[in-house]
Amino acid sequence: MKVNQLKTSVAMMVVSTLIILTGVSISEPAVANSATEINIGVDATLQRFKKEVNGGAQFLNKAEGVLVFPNVLKVGLVVGGEYGEGALRVGGKTVSYYSTAGASIGFQMGAQSKSVVLVFLSKQALNSFRNSDGWKAGVDGSVALIKWGVGEDVNSVEINDPVVAFIFGNKGLMYNLTLEGSKFSKIKR
Q: Which uninterrupted H or E stretch holds 25?
């Protein structure tokens, strides 16, 4: 358990340091302070998802569970870090809260705020996620990153993966856009 806390602390330190070094100013906090704030953000993100993704409401109805991070802040200047908090919804109700954190090294410069929606399409994938002690995308489970075009109905895209992700609402430019290596850990709120 201490290793997970250390990794989260390092990711938060990297993000904080890079914000200071790059002079990035954000209007929304990267970390929600309460369950109420997280739920308000999740509600707004899901409404936006349903509005912006053609067929989004119908697609979410097929889900066994939906993990929503309304605001994940990623900053990078050679070394990068990201952090955000969200909620897992099953049957339309919040069942637990999670954080996502990650770090990366490589060609990157800038800051980005994004919303992440992970949709669990199989009960087995959802149960595996819920029963894990920290779940890492690309290691503990494969996540298909979904991109859609204007006017394209998400239900017309053939999806065979048990977990799919939608990333949208980017603010700012970032060279690297992926969930690989992102760690998802249960938090108490």
A: none
Q: CA 161, CA 120: separation in Å to the nearest integer?
A: 9
How far is it, in rounded angstroms, from Cα 147 to Cα 144?
10
Q: What is the mean pLDDT of each successive set of 10 residues along the chain, which is 189 residues long? A: 53 51 42 82 93 87 96 85 95 96 80 88 94 70 61 72 80 47 87
Residue-level pLDDT at 65: 98
Spell out the residues 6+ positions from residue 46 whose beta carbon is closer than 8 angstroms to its own. Answer: 60, 66, 68, 89, 117
Q: What is the Cα–Cα distance from 38 to 127, expressed in whole angstroms? A: 22
Identify the pLDDT of residue 168. Answer: 76
Q: What is the token pair recorded at 5?
A: 């806390």
Beta bridge partners of 101: 83, 183
Which segments within the chain are labelled E, that is strand? 65-90, 93-120, 135-136, 144-146, 163-171, 183-187
pTM for this model (two decimals) = 0.75
> What are the beta bridge partners of residue 43?
none
Collapsed DSSP state (helix, strand, coil) of residue 74: strand
| Phi–psi pair at 43, nearest 5 degrees | -60, -45
> Domain-by-domain residue ranges, the chain?
2-187
Q: What are 183's two structure tokens?
A: 């760690």
> Residue 185 CA to chain centroid, in angstroms?
11
3-state secondary structure of 22: helix
